[in-house]
Design goal:
The structure is a single chain. The protein is of the alpha/beta class. The protein has 2 domains: 3-176, no CATH class; 189-472, Purple Acid Phosphatase, chain A, domain 2. The chain is 28% helix and 19% strand. The strands form 5 sheets. The chain has an 8-stranded mixed beta sheet, with no helix packed on it. It is globular.
Length: 473
């Protein structure tokens, strides 16, 4: 990821420039080089969506919610807004713009504009440190601080605005014409009695620290292979910014801890996330799930794993954003009625949240899964979407609800270790990395080791250290 494209003000300025270019309409040969080519209707539709998103963005940030430092801390230490360093938008069109810009900036004829060198100024970190977010940046756009302490970049002139506008129009066309939902899940896959599941959420940023997470996961994969455990590696969804093919290739598959040569020995799985759907889900279904490592998934976004005592239901809550596309509710109820094992749910979106506590969060999933949840047989649920590691007390008839969305997206750690927990939170990873005035949350993942009626769970940070352990029974 490029530093400037993680800065909200810079992205907004680029959206304005793209809108101006789009008003001129598609101009050959640039537009016609896309397959299929974008046309005047594509441009008109894209411009309409771009202008609506830009107007909303100017009123209120679409970036990551509820990670801002408290006002007293802000006044004394002057941390920058999170949107200045890690603007990960929840607006599909904004995300498409980020994808298109990064694709263009990374093109071979733009190589001179992008560098891995540290900026000369800004004083936020030691150039010898590992980058807490990214060290890639546009060479000719330096950061400075305005009177409100916002991080502002010098203007950067796009070398080919018509090409970027065509890319944005193509991305929005994909969003409007989503990939068809695959309503047929693969045959259920049996797990060994001592299987190991390694799960990571929201990992697909490709950032250096996300790559460290993959390296730490690899250690536990090799340990499982040595112990001859049946091993499954699960991503809970989201490849940034908006699930383009190059993003799966460069940010996900290139760093995925299961090697291509191991596709026959190790099972890989990836849930659908909202960012995977921001360009219509085409690359998720047709590119990522076509990779040999994910072949067991059968190009479906929901599936079931099982052994004699446990069954795992992985759900797609992103094709319908924060929902549950049919026929998943009927499918899980049918499987539930025919199979007596204790159940675990996996999803990208939250079943509920202590920090994004609105009526809409998880409501559709809870309503559609009510017969299953009310049975008392759902022992655990794991999800991502929020970029935190949080363990909850029993809630909504789930004994062990768990949020592990801290795999690869930088956020601020806004809670001190001795701060009281918010109900129904029972544990929260509050370790941090301090760089300048900013305190960054630590990344990580979870390991589930099955042992008969027990599941031994370890929560591991990006440095490979277990920071919390528990048993699910």
């Amino acid at each position: 990821m490029i530093e400037q494209l993680l800065n909200r003000e810079f992205v907004v300025s680029q959206m304005e420039a793209i809108g101006e270019e789009m008003r001129r309409g598609p101009r050959p040969p640039t537009a016609s080089s896309l397959s299929p080519p974008v046309n005047a209707a594509d441009y008109a539709a894209a411009l309409e969506d771009l202008e609506l998103s830009l107007a909303r963005e100017k009123q209120r940030s679409s970036g990551q919610p509820s990670f801002e430092p408290s006002p007293p801390e802000r006044r004394s230490d002057w941390p920058a807004e999170l949107d200045d360093f890690a603007f990960i938008s929840r607006d599909p069109v904004v995300s498409i713009v980020q994808s298109a810009l990064e694709y263009r900036y990374n093109a071979s004829d733009n190589a001179s504009h992008v560098t891995d060198e540290e900026p000369e100024g800004d004083g936020r970190r030691n150039p010898e440190d590992d980058p807490v977010v990214t060290n890639r940046r546009l060479r000719h756009s330096q950061p400075w601080r305005d009177t409100n302490n916002r991080r502002v970049f010098e203007a950067f002139s796009e070398t080919d605005p018509s090409w970027v506008s065509s890319l944005v129009a193509m991305g929005i066309r994909g969003l409007r014409q989503r990939h068809a939902f695959n309503s047929k899940p693969p045959e259920p896959v049996a797990m060994g009695p001592n299987a190991r599941l390694i799960m990571v959420g929201d990992w697909g940023s490709g950032l250096p620290r996300a790559q460290k997470v993959a390296t730490a996961m690899r250690v536990y994969i090799e340990e499982a292979l040595h112990e001859q455990r049946d091993t499954h590696v699960v991503h809970l969804g989201d490849v940034y910014y908006s699930g383009w093919e190059y993003e799966y290739k460069n940010r996900f598959l290139e760093h995925w801890p299961v090697r291509l040569s191991e596709a026959g020995r190790l099972a890989s799985w990836s849930l659908n996330g909202n960012h995977d759907m921001y360009s219509g889900g085409h690359a998720y279904f047709d590119f990522l799930l076509a990779d040999e490592r994910f072949r067991r998934q059968g190009k479906a976004s929901f599936f079931r794993l099982y052994n004699d005592l446990w069954q795992i239901f992985a759900l797609d809550t992103a094709w319908d954003d924060n929902g549950l596309k049919d026929p998943q509710a009927e499918w899980i109820k049918s499987e539930f009625d025919r199979n007596p094992q204790r159940a675990i749910l996996l999803s990208h979106h939250q079943l509920f949240s202590a920090y994004e506590d609105t009526l809409a969060v998880g409501r559709t999933m809870r309503e559609k899964l009510a017969p299953v949840l009310n049975s008392g047989r759902v022992h655990a649920a794991f999800w991502g979407h929020e970029h935190r590691c949080v363990l909850y007390d029993a809630f909504h008839n789930v004994q062990y609800p768990r949020l592990i969305g801290h795999g690869g997206v930088p956020v601020y750690m806004t809670h001190k270790k001795d701060e009281p927990l918010v109900a129904p939170v029972s544990y929260e990873l509050r370790d941090s990395i301090s760089k300048g005035f900013e305190s960054w949350a630590v990344f990580g993942f979870a390991i589930l080791d099955f042992d008969g009626p027990l599941i031994n769970v370890r929560y591991v940070n990006e440095f490979g250290e277990a920071h919390h352990e528990e048993q699910i029974r």
